[in-house]
Design goal:
The chain has 358 residues and is of the alpha/beta class. It is built from 11 helices and 14 strands.
Length: 358
């Protein structure tokens, strides 16, 4: 009797598109399944691992770079660990970092004989942010790769845009990837398809697109604008000077100072794509989840700290040509025990922001 292969769902999408939220949704909606989760981050400090709900077979987090940028042996080793566990899993979820090309990741499941014998890709699911995807497709080559390689594309957060914007994005994506299934999703909507039983991945179609990616240009037209995007070579994906800067510190952040800094950072067009963190705020007894995408940010309580020793801030800034030293200087301002003096603080912060613009 032929051994059944473990289905794999690859979840991808640009920074802030909603991948971790979808991952949590899939786990919570299928509590009967034994999942393994490979949850990849771009940055040295693991944040998303704390945001992912418990999976029955644990979370495997690979830090310090994208799966597609580090050696694929890292991924293969994790897959080996999953297979070696006593309790066998029923489904593997792979959440890529927001600047990962899913092509090389999928190739790992096809090119390694041992992995191919044990796993089968059920589908590549790409999330896009309805509000920002047009600009991302124009500016970020990897966002185009994520769309063109997908079996299912979710246009997410449609409640934040009007119907014209939604239709425009849908038409753009349809022209870039006519063979994909497109789903619309907002905060009050649900999926009418089981994303864990897609059976949508075609090895032949994928390999054709992947092999042509080095020479084929995907173009689409919007009014008089033309965007042309070339898929990247197999292993070396260039991220157009996108870097992550991670910070961990014990000193509590001053709520007012931190809010002023974040608003300045996000409104000054400084190429900050994503901020995520768990914050230790002064005068706040709970740990606070902080997330920012482009110019928008939000906070949420994560419950009480387990102990005083646990209290610390972990925060990651992802963007283009960000200055690590200047961000550190701003965080030092926000953790300074000195009383808030508006004129002094704004002058100090403005010097930092001006330095970031250079």
């Amino acid at each position: 009797m032929t051994k059944s292969k473990i289905p794999v769902t690859i979840i991808t999408g640009f920074l802030g598109a909603g991948k971790t939220t979808l991952l949590n949704h899939l786990i919570s909606q299928h509590k009967e399944k034994r999942f393994a989760v490979i949850e990849n981050e771009f940055g040295e400090v693991g944040i998303d691992g704390a945001l992912v709900m418990d999976a029955k077979e644990g979370i495997f987090e690979l830090s310090n770079g994208c799966l597609c940028c580090t050696l694929n042996d890292d991924l293969i080793n994790v897959l080996q660990k999953i297979l070696d566990r006593d309790r066998k899993i029923e489904h593997l979820l792979v959440e890529t970092t927001g600047i990962a090309d899913p092509g090389p990741i999928a190739m790992t499941f096809l090119s390694d004989p041992y992995v191919k014998e044990a796993f089968r890709i059920d589908g590549i699911v790409t999330l896009t942010d309805a509000q920002f995807i047009e600009q991302q497709l124009e500016d970020q080559e990897v966002a185009c790769n994520q769309v063109t390689m997908a079996d299912v594309i979710i246009i997410n957060k449609i409640d934040r845009v009007d119907s014209y914007q939604t239709d425009t994005v849908k038409n753009i994506i349809r022209r870039m990837n006519p063979g994909s299934r497109i789903l619309l999703h907002g905060k009050d909507s649900s999926f009418d398809v089981n994303l864990l039983q897609l059976n949508a991945f075609s090895e032949q179609s994928f390999l054709s697109a992947f092999n042509n990616s080095k020479k084929q240009t995907y173009s689409y037209q919007k009014d008089t604008a033309s965007y042309s995007n070339l898929l990247s070579p197999t292993k070396q994906v260039r991220h157009a000077d996108i870097h992550s800067h991670s910070f961990v510190f014990k000193a509590p952040l001053d709520v007012l100072k931190f809010n002023i800094f974040i608003r300045a950072l996000l409104t000054e067009q400084l190429n900050v794509f994503r901020i995520k963190g768990i914050l230790n705020l002064n005068a706040v007894e709970e740990k606070i989840l902080f997330q920012a995408v482009n110019s928008q940010y939000a906070t949420d309580s994560m419950g009480p700290w387990i102990s005083e020793d646990e209290r610390e801030t972990k925060i990651v800034f992802i963007g283009k040509k960000l200055n690590n030293t200047l961000i550190q200087g701003a965080l030092d301002l926000c953790t300074s025990p000195e009383a808030f003096e508006p004129e002094i603080f704004y002058n100090q912060l403005n010097r930092i922001i001006l330095g970031m613009k250079k």
